[in-house]
Design goal:
Blueprint lengths: L3 H9 L3 E8 L7 H14 L4 E5 L7 H5 L7 E2 L3 E2 L2 E2 L2 E5 L1 H4 L8 H14 L5 E7 L6 H9 L4 E6 L3 H16 L4 E9 L5 H8 L4 E6 L11 H6 L1 H14 L2
Parallel strand pairs: 1-7, 1-8, 2-6, 2-7, 8-9, 9-10
Antiparallel strand pairs: 3-4, 5-6
The chain binds adenosine-5'-triphosphate and magnesium ion.
The site of adenosine-5'-triphosphate (ATP) has 19 residues, from helix 2 and strand 9.
Length: about 240
C-alpha cells in the first residue's frame, strides 16, 4: 500500500528552493559544525534558512546552537521554531536526548513521520545534517527528499578519504548532485584530497584549517561566527555558492 505520508513530504518541501545535505562517509569530520555554521552564515546574509538535524546516531546541532528547552509548535503539522534567525528542527525533539532505540523499518518510519509533519514554509535554503555515510537512514533520506544536493565533508586523512571516496562514488552512481567537497581540519599543505576530488570530476570547495578555539564556542553562535573556522567557511560559501 502506498504510504499517504510519502506524498505529503514533497508538498511540505515545495516552498524550499535548495536542500543541501551536509554529509560524509566518515564520522567526526565536522559535518554538524559545518551544517550549523553554514545555516547561520546564509541566514546572516538575509536569506530564509532552515536547519534540519536528521542524524539519528549523534544529533549535535542543538548543542552547537545552544538551543535549550525549545519546542516546535503544532499547527496542522509541526512548525520549526526560530533559533538565531533560522527555522530549526531536530530529531532530538522526539528523542528528548535519549538514544533512539530505532532499527531498520522503525528508522524509515520515524523519518517519514518527521519529514511529513514538518512545515518549513518558504525557504531559500534548507541545510540537513545527515546521518552517517551510507547508512539505511541516509539512503532513506536520499530516497524521500527529491532534489537533495550534497556537500561532502572530509578531513585530510587518507584513511578517512578511503571511505569518503566510496561514498562519493555511490552518490555519483545514483546520479545525485554533489555540490562539492570541503577538506576540514586541515593542518598541512598536502594537495592529496584536492587531487582525489577533482580526479573524480567533483568540485573541491577548499579547506578549513584546524581551529583550536572552535570547541570553546559550542553553544554560543556569536562567538562561533567570529572564529577562523566560520570566516573560512564563509569564504568558501561566497566563492562556491556564488551568493
Ligand atoms: N576545523 C576544525 N577545527 C577544530 N575542531 C573542529 C573543526 N571542525 C570540527 N571540529 C571539532 O570536531 C568535533 C567533531 O565535529 P562534528 O561534531 O561537527 O563532526 P561530525 O562529522 O558531525 O561528527 P558525527 O559523525 O559524530 O556526527 C567537534 O568537537 C568540533 O568542534
Ligand atoms: Mg554530527
Amino acid at each position: 500500500m502506498v504510504d499517504p505520508r510519502r506524498a505529503i513530504i514533497g508538498e511540505r518541501l515545495r516552498g524550499v528552493e535548495n536542500i543541501i545535505a551536509v554529509s560524509s562517509g566518515k564520522g567526526g569530520v565536522g559535518k554538524s559544525m559545518i551544517a550549523s555554521t553554514l545555516a547561520l552564515i546564509l541566514a546572516r546574509k538575509g536569506l530564509r534558512v532552515g536547519l534540519f538535524d536528521l542524524d539519528f546516531t549523534s544529533p549535535a546541532t542543538h548543542l552547537i546552537l545552544g538551543v535549550g528547552d525549545l519546542y516546535p509548535e503544532e499547527e496542522y503539522g509541526i512548525i520549526p521554531p526560530r533559533v538565531h534567525g533560522l527555522r530549526y528542527m531536530s530529531i532530538v525533539y522526539y528523542s528528548k536526548g535519549e538514544t533512539l532505540p530505532l532499527r531498520g523499518a522503525d528508522i524509515s518510519n520515524a523519518l517519514i513521520e518527521l519529514l511529513s509533519v514538518t512545515r518549513w514554509g518558504v525557504l531559500d535554503f534548507l541545510i540537513v545534517d545527515m546521518p552517517p555515510g551510507i547508512s539505511d537512514a541516509a539512503l532513506d533520506i536520499i530516497r524521500l527528499i527529491e532534489g537533495l544536493k550534497f556537500l561532502i565533508v572530509t578531513t585530510p586523512s587518507r584513511l578517512a578519504f578511503e571511505t569518503v571516496g566510496k561514498f562519493m562514488r555511490l552518490l555519483l552512481e545514483l546520479d545525485i548532485r554533489i555540490l562539492g567537497v570541503i577538506e576540514n581540519m586541515k593542518i598541512s599543505d598536502s594537495t592529496f584530497i584536492q587531487e582525489q576530488v577533482e580526479g573524480r570530476g567533483v568540485r573541491f570547495w577548499g579547506d578549513i584549517p584546524f581551529d583550536r578555539r572552535l570547541e570553546e564556542t559550542i553553544g554560543d553562535v556569536d562567538r562561533l561566527l567570529e572564529t577562523e573556522f566560520a570566516k573560512k567557511l564563509k569564504e568558501l560559501v561566497d566563492k562556491n555558492l556564488g551568493i
